[in-house]
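Progress note, sequence design subtask.
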């Protein structure tokens, strides 16, 4: 779901900042710098390569974020989720992203926000994760994986960057969950954003790989519409009781404007 949620009243200021930054940092012609005002985080984006969506903001604000320990962001894209989470913790954050161009945007966004001491981006296949990180060592794994199964009859995005980000071409749901579980300590937390139509499959695969589902939330475009986003959190080797369903969230209100909850996540409490 591609959503433009950057404050238009500050567009002139952002353009001035972007022009100034181009003098000191490599910003390609098809890139722009956007800001999530709720976190004062700036992100390098490219509409022709990858731009994060509301899913990333929702995921960063869904689980309990440890104040210390280790956090891993799998399928990190241009690094948005890990950068947003950095505002809530002092824990080191390690990001894993397959695509070189996306990982490069993430690395430059880390520099842009002066987070080099906290956030590290690794450009690699998630299958290679354990060349950099140890098993049973992580307190929280976050993941915004490809949503769509790789089926021969499925229509894929003609843009190769977007096709890899959205379709299970290089990884799949089971691999993502298996690697997440292997990374986590006992009682470590796993949080993922996905599509509601794969909810039952997600539950089954999580249980298979020792992740007890603990909390879910369905996000709806607006009242009267079907949910289009699923947020789910689990605990490694946790008990299967105590499962909770959070109150539904609506992206837009009845007037077609952002709901209060969406505005809070995007712009803060003001």
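Output:
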């Amino acid at each position: 779901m591609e959503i433009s949620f950057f404050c238009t009243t500050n567009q002139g200021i952002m353009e001035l900042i972007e022009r100034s930054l181009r003098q000191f940092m490599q910003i390609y012609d098809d890139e722009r710098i956007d800001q999530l005002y709720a976190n004062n985080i700036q992100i390098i984006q490219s509409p022709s390569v990858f731009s994060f969506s509301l899913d990333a903001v929702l995921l960063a604000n869904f689980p309990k974020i440890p104040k210390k320990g280790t956090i891993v962001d799998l399928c990190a894209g241009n690094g948005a989720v890990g950068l947003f989470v950095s505002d809530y913790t002092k824990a080191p954050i390690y990001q894993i992203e397959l695509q070189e161009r996306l990982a490069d945007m993430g690395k430059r966004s880390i520099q842009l926000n002066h987070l080099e001491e906290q956030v590290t981006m690794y450009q690699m296949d998630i299958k290679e994760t354990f060349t950099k990180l140890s098993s049973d060592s992580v307190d929280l794994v976050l993941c915004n994986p490809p949503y769509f199964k790789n089926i021969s009859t499925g229509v894929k995005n003609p843009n190769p960057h977007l096709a890899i980000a959205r379709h299970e071409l290089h990884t799949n749901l089971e691999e993502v969950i298996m690697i997440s579980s292997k990374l986590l300590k006992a009682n470590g937390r796993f949080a993922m954003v996905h599509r509601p139509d794969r909810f039952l499959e997600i539950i089954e695969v999580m249980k298979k790989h020792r992740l007890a589902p603990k909390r879910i939330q369905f996000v709806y475009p607006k009242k009267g519409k079907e949910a289009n986003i699923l947020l789910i959190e689990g605990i490694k080797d946790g008990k299967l009781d105590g499962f909770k369903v959070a109150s539904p969230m609506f992206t837009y209100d009845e007037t077609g404007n952002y709901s209060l909850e969406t505005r809070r996540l995007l712009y803060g409490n003001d």
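The first strand starts at residue 32 and ends at 36. Work on this subtask will continue into the next period as scheduled.
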